[in-house]
């Protein structure tokens, strides 16, 4: 402003030198470029802050201690806008005693640090000119707080919850006063309701240090006032000796005498709900709780030497022993507790939190709990309490206060924490954004797929029902499907079963190419040939629920042949589901036939929607897989027959499919052994074959990107049913036994394309027209190679082959004319199929 004034004066002096006529034509425009933070109004306050105060000053609170004004404020540092509190005091005379006392309060607040004393951040002193007089303003910036009287009105607590919260607050103020009196040998001098403020976490803190002074009782030569600014204290808050200015008696009293009296005044104001008007009102004890009455009277003893030390008040008072105080105290010293104490405490905490004041739980306990979990001092049961408290928050508050902690916990190496996260993922999974799941959460969750614990593998599998919709196609195709391919040959039958069900439910999130490469191979070659009957049932349910993704050619050549075989399955439930699947897919083929006859050329390339009655089977199975027993919302189709009893839709054996929790795995295995007693034992399901791309002719450019379902043999069966075993054995028996006479020469002269048949009088009439053996390993679709005839089995030559899909290519290089690269590791060369491979 001084520069602008000088410039204007210079211009005016030049104008005066011009003639009077020319002066009228002079027009001066002054443009001043200045920064907002450099502009200070007369009061020293601006819209964006003070020159030496990088904070914005907001609206004041209705009340504050003494002559101070308590403002809301925000920080200008780094543009974060974090909230603060700003206390200001203005005087018109630089020699005013209020200014000296305020400077004392700033100095004391800056140097005294304690968890229950207001935290100091910044201070400045600004001098402004008002006409001919100047005005001095002191600013103190602290952590964000609000006056206790205002917070009490806002909370509106009553009854037991009010008493518990007051007990917690008085406990904190008593600690602060004890620290000043006993440890620092300081006297606050004006403990009352106005000198207490409350933080956003509902902690009470002591401030108003203008009167604070050292206790010099050991100085026998001191004669003057011990409290230099005692005139700032209201007369109603002064004990008798201070009201009489009896400094000799004060110096002979203990250091806590004055502040113990002040704490008694605070207790009266709290429970009476009124500001203390005069000292005589302290005699009215009607509002004081009975458990606190005796200590209250000792704090207000007329004899200073007999007043109760605040440290003793904390140790002996029955009033401070309640659930809220004990719970918060336990959380604050959590690192000192052993694992047994922590485990017991956190298991009780969810129920205990319901009995405590809701606002205190959300603003005080919840941050403490989140911090303890984040830094590893809390046990895994604490996560249950965190989610229970988080359920009381709004969606926005949950995303800010709870989700960041949960995301960090996914990187924990504590297996108990990981299990607890997965068990409760349905409570917070919907709140996770797709970006957070794909970039931060999934990589940690995926480690559970390969964990040695069957429970953790199972929970990881089940969590994908919530997380898969939020994953990118790159993550699903490049990572998730590889893990699911391995889990479909897991040693635990329940995990294999649930992998099939999961695939059926997340099929909607796969792109078209991935679905064609994965689904049929996963459901037919793996699931339908599993030794565990519920796994075979799950494969049938998955096929029916995803029938809209298959074209009619795939249904006719790859699905129906594999499903029909299960109509003679040893398990009755599998047979029932197989018949339902056959009916559904035959209906699709029939619809295609009708459309083709009607001239609809698009029928072959478009899938036909699945039938709701059968699709509901997959949804029912998935709804029973939840931990808490409530149906999952991710089931693909609504149930058309959900009103039927479960017993009418499932057999005893298949009902075990729905039991997912680890304690039930043993039960599932026992029932599976009963099923296996009725059929041959197939090869181990833990083979490393993938789900395959041979059948579809779909290839990927890099082998490292394959999802694990490659190179599967569509003709290979893990083990056929007993009926098929008899058929295959009949097909492999020779037609006639070799004659004892050596005929090696005659046989060696026959062409390789003919088959030697020896007939006798009991020979089969169909033996002479048996089909010759193929020259190569390839053969047309559904054509069985018959090598020899059996005298005892007249149907050997025309026995129906097991279900096949399509012929294997001549070249082993996937139709590209290149020889296939040799596979590493042991390979199975003995096939149970009749394809000759």
Relevant terms:
alpha+beta, Transferase(Phosphotransferase), domain 1, 837 residues, ATP binding, elongated, three-stranded antiparallel sheet, Phosphorylase Kinase, domain 1, 31 helices, disordered C terminus, single chain
Provide structural commentary.
- The chain is α+β, with helices and mostly antiparallel strands and 837 residues long.
- Among the domains are: 55-146, Phosphorylase Kinase, domain 1, CATH 3.30.200.20; 147-324, Transferase(Phosphotransferase) domain 1 (Transferase(Phosphotransferase), domain 1), CATH 1.10.510.
- The chain is built from 31 helices and 10 strands.
- Strands 1-2-3-5-4 form a 5-stranded antiparallel beta sheet, covered by helices on one side. A 3-stranded antiparallel beta sheet has the order 6-8-9. The protein has a two-stranded antiparallel ribbon with strand order 7-10.
- It is elongated and about 120 Å long.
- The protein starts with a helix and ends in an 88-residue tail after the last helix.
- Measured as a percent range, the helix fraction is 40-55%
Q: Give a short account of the largest sheet.
A: 5 strands, antiparallel
Strand content: 5-15%
CATH architecture of the domain at 147-324: Orthogonal Bundle
CATH topology annotation of the domain at 147-324: Transferase(Phosphotransferase), domain 1
């Amino acid at each position: 402003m001084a520069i602008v004034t000088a410039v204007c004066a210079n211009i005016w002096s030049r104008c005066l030198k011009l003639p009077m006529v020319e002066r009228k034509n002079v027009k001066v425009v002054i443009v001043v470029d200045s920064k907002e933070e450099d502009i200070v109004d007369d009061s020293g306050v601006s819209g964006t802050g003070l020159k030496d105060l990088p904070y914005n000053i907001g609206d004041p609170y209705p009340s504050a201690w003494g002559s101070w004004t308590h403002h809301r404020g925000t920080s200008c540092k780094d543009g974060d806008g974090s909230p603060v509190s700003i206390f200001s005091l203005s005087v018109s005379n630089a020699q005013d005693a209020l200014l000296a006392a305020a400077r004392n309060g700033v100095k004391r607040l800056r140097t005294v640090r304690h968890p229950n004393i207001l935290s100091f951040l910044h201070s400045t002193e600004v001098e402004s000119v008002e006409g001919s007089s100047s005005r001095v303003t002191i600013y103190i910036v602290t952590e964000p707080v609000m006056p206790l009287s205002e917070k009490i009105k806002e909370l509106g607590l009553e009854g037991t919850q009010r008493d518990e919260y007051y007990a917690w607050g008085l406990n904190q103020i008593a600690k602060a006063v004890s620290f000043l009196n006993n440890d620092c040998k300081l006297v606050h001098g004006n403990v009352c309701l106005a000198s207490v403020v409350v933080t956003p976490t509902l902690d009470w803190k002591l401030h108003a240090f203008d009167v604070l002074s050292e206790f010099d009782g050991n100085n026998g030569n001191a004669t003057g006032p011990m409290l230099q600014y005692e005139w700032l204290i209201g007369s109603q808050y002064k004990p008798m000796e201070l009201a009489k200015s009896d400094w000799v008696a004060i110096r002979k009293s203990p250091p806590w005498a004055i502040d113990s009296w002040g704490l008694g005044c605070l207790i009266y104001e709290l429970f009476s709900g009124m500001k203390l008007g005069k000292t005589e009102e302290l005699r009215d004890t009607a509002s004081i709780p009975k458990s606190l009455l005796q200590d209250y009277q000792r704090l207000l003893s007329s004899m200073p030497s007999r007043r109760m030390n605040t440290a003793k008040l904390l140790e002996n008072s029955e009033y401070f022993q309640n659930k809220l105080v004990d719970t918060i105290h336990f959380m604050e010293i959590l690192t000192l507790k052993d694992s047994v104490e922590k485990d017991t405490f956190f298991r009780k905490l969810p129920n205990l939190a319901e009995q405590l004041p809701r606002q205190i739980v959300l603003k005080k306990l919840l941050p403490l709990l989140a911090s303890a979990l984040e830094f590893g001092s809390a046990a895994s049961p604490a996560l249950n309490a965190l989610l229970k408290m988080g359920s009381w928050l709004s969606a926005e508050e949950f995303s800010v206060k709870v989700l960041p902690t949960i995301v960090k916990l996914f990187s924990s190496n504590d297996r108990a924490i990981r299990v607890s996260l997965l068990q409760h993922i349905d409570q917070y999974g919907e709140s996770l954004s797709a970006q957070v799941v794909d970039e931060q959460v999934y990589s940690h969750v995926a480690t559970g797929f390969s964990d040695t614990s069957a429970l953790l593998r199972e929970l990881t599998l089940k969590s994908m029902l919530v997380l898969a919709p939020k994953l990118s196609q790159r993550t699903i195709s490049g990572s998730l499907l590889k893990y699911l391919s391995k889990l479909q040959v897991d040693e635990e039958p329940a995990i294999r079963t649930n992998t099939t069900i999961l695939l059926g439910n997340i099929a909607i999130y796969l792109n078209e190419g991935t679905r064609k490469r994965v689904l049929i191979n996963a459901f037919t070659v793996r699931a339908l040939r599993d030794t565990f009957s519920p796994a075979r049932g799950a494969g049938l349910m998955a096929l029916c629920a995803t029938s809209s993704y298959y074209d009619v050619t795939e249904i006719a050549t790859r699905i129906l042949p594999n499903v029909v075989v299960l109509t003679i399955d040893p398990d009755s439930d599998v047979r029932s589901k197989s018949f339902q699947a056959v009916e559904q897919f035959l209906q699709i083929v029939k619809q295609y036939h009708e459309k083709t006859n009607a001239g609809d050329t698009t029928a072959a390339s478009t899938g036909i929607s699945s039938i709701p009655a059968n699709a509901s089977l997959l949804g029912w199975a998935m709804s029973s897989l939840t931990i808490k027993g409530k149906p999952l919302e991710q089931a693909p189709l609504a149930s058309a027959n959900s009103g039927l009893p479960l017993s009418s839709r499932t057999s005893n054996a298949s009902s075990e499919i729905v039991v997912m929790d680890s304690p039930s795995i043993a039960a599932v295995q026992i029932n599976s052994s009963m099923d296996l007693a009725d059929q041959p034992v197939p090869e181990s399901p833990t083979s490393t074959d993938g789900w395959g791309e041979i059948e579809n002719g779909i290839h990927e450019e890099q082998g490292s990107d394959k999802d694990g379902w490659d190179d599967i043999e569509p003709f290979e069966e893990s083990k056929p049913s007993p009926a098929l075993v008899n058929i295959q054995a009949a097909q492999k028996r020779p037609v006639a036994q070799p004659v004892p006479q050596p005929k090696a020469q005659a046989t060696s002269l026959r062409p390789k394309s003919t088959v030697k048949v020896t007939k006798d009088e009991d020979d089969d009439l169909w033996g002479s027209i048996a089909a010759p053996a193929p020259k190569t390993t390839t053969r047309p679709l559904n054509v069985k190679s018959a090598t020899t005839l059996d005298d005892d089995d007249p149907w050997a030559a025309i026995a129906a082959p097991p279900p096949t899909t399509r012929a294997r290519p001549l070249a082993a290089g996937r139709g590209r004319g290149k020889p296939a690269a040799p596979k590493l590791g042991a390979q199975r060369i003995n096939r149970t199929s009749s394809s000759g491979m």
